[in-house]
Amino acid sequence: MDVVTLGETMVSFTPQATGLMRYARHYQSAFAGAETNTMTGLSRLGHQTGWISRVGDDELGASVLSFVRGEGIDVSNVMKDPTAPTALMLKEMLNEENVRVYYYRQHSAASNLQPKDIDEAYIARAKYLYITGITPALSSSCLEAVQQALTYAKKHSVKVIFDPNLRKKLWEENHARKVLLGLAAQADIVLPGVAEGEFLFNVQDEKKIARRFIENGACTVITKLGEHGAYYVAGKEEIYVPGFKVKAIDPVGAGDGFAAGVISGLLDGLSGEEAVRRGCAIGAMVTTTSGDIEGLPDRRLLENFMAESREDVS
Ligand code: KDG
Fold first, then answer.
1. pTM score, whole prediction
2. Are the beta carbons of 277 and 259 closer than 8 angstroms?
């Protein structure tokens, strides 16, 4: 296994028309979950991935399982929980710039995830453990499960990659700050956005953000700068990697695609800078389609995109 992760995957419903959702009559369904978005990106590039979770023992749980399995992600460590439902997410597109998200995930099956669901051998076999700040926000047992996975990763020298993925709707801010900083301290590589750096350290500048994460314990920090690319810091190396110019229509899922690109590059033995460049390319590609995973490329699409697209070197 190259990369394993744990987290919740939901069924998402988006009205087909823009405007207040109270008037919506037709919805499009899809799947949403930052961790499985990233595993999908990796799987499309040919990497071996695994997902640890719970889904409800219900029809939506069955659809999540077959979707994730269909993307080539190992689901042998996903349990069907008969005591709780699969979670839902609704996206209200007020207009193209203003999207509101409503979660129906409290007491969901995935929020019942427990430390005992984490199989030590499964983590030990992976090269990377990928975690985000969403799973620990779901419940105290989910937080314990993330910590258990981290403990096993450390014990077996599995590298830990952490995307803080702040979701303010899911938890109280002071608690979130404390937990996210604690997890970032144990990660080898942290992938924050500027807003998360600001939330955690009250600084906006990417150089200061990187410095604070390194003081907090990380070895490598790659700060996402949206269309402008990313700022990579590892040891004495500090590099700005430009973003790719695209016509973006939906930014959601770009960060997950970015993570997939960076991890894929590292798995392929690229330099840190080249891995981040791959991350920027996939992040940009994801924004060109509506939906979180539809723009994730296979190898051929990625190579063509990187060969043909222009980078923002301004
Ligand atoms: O990163 C995209 C995610 O926001 C989406 O797929 C849903 O995991 C999700 C969440 O918790 O918001």
1. 0.96
2. no
